[in-house]
Specification:
Layout (H helix, E strand, L loop, with lengths): L23 H20 L4 H8 L3 H13 L3 E4 L4 E4 L1 H6 L5 H18 L2 E8 L2 E8 L15 E3 L3 H9 L3 H8 L5 H14 L2 E4 L6 E9 L5 E10 L10 H18 L3
Antiparallel strand pairs: 1-2, 3-4, 3-8, 4-5, 6-7, 7-8
Helix pairs in contact: 1-3, 2-3, 5-9, 6-8, 7-8
């Protein structure tokens, strides 16, 4: 089923390397680490050089901060592109604050999973990445897909991310595309998804897995997340047959989110 990304908070964040009691320099280092996290959240994936420039520090400091934060799971590294992004530990820490949201979404994802027999993923946009906020695993078939709540991936990867992009402003799409090795391909894929009203993928975020996803609109009617059916590629040909149920479930989530917002 491919490599699973597991969230681990059972090890201590080596805060001792970043903070020395009573030391002003230690306080500055912690401040830089927090600024680095905010920068990744605001701009999405970046290289150590880009982060050093944003924090106005040298590359050695940026690398040291990234190493400590990566060790604790607060950032993660794309080894192929040498870029860093927000890690799964932050999503885990935020879980208590999003419990009510998950309680709101779970009945809809459970119902959709029961209707289709497939795994349903509800993803939320975090900067230039998507995080799996809720999952209902399909149990009808002996071969099924299962992700992990809290796993993150770039918006350019797979149907769940491109569904967010198809509901986002073109300026944001171009900004995300600029961080990839082939911007033109991603822009073309998003344009095709917009024409269809949904995004599809095969063998992207996870080997031997296909998906179909639609955007979830936020308060400003721009995509704040996506709803996705994930299946083994052997059942990929039947994905579009579930599109009416997928769209109806997405509409229910958007309606519930609208009612949840303060007046």
């Amino acid at each position: 089923m491919g490599r699973a990304v597991r969230i681990r908070l059972d090890h201590e964040f080596d805060i001792g390397t970043m903070w020395h009691a009573g030391d002003v320099e230690g306080s500055k280092t912690v401040d830089q680490a927090l600024r680095l996290l905010f920068e990744l959240h605001r701009r999405g994936e970046q290289t150590p050089v880009e982060l050093a420039r944003a924090l106005d520090c040298n590359r050695t400091v940026a690398h040291r901060l990234l190493a400590s934060l990566q060790n604790a799971g607060f950032v993660q590294r794309d080894n192929d592109r040498a870029r860093y992004a927000i890690g799964p530990a932050l999503a885990q820490l935020a879980a208590p604050a999003t419990t009510s949201l998950r309680d709101l979404v779970r009945p809809v994802t459970d119902q959709l999973s029961a209707k289709t027999g497939e795994t349903v993923l509800f993803c939320l946009r975090e900067g230039s990445r998507a995080v799996v906020a809720e999952q209902s695993v399909g149990v009808r078939h002996p071969v099924r897909v299962q992700w992990e709540v809290g796993r993150t991936l770039g918006l350019e990867q797979g149907a769940s991310g491109r569904a967010v992009l198809l509901g986002s402003p073109q300026s944001f799409v171009r900004a995300v595309a600029a961080m990839t090795s082939d911007p033109a391909t991603l822009i073309r894929q998003v344009a095709q998804a917009r024409e269809r009203g949904y995004a599809v993928s095969r063998d992207e975020a996870m080997p031997e897995v296909g998906g179909i996803a639609v955007p979830i609109a936020g308060a400003d009617r721009r995509a704040t997340g996506s709803l996705m059916l994930a299946v083994p590629v052997s059942r990929g040909a039947a994905l579009t047959s579930h599109l009416p149920e997928l769209r109806a479930a997405a509409a229910l989530i958007e309606e519930a989110l609208a009612e949840r917002r303060p007046a």
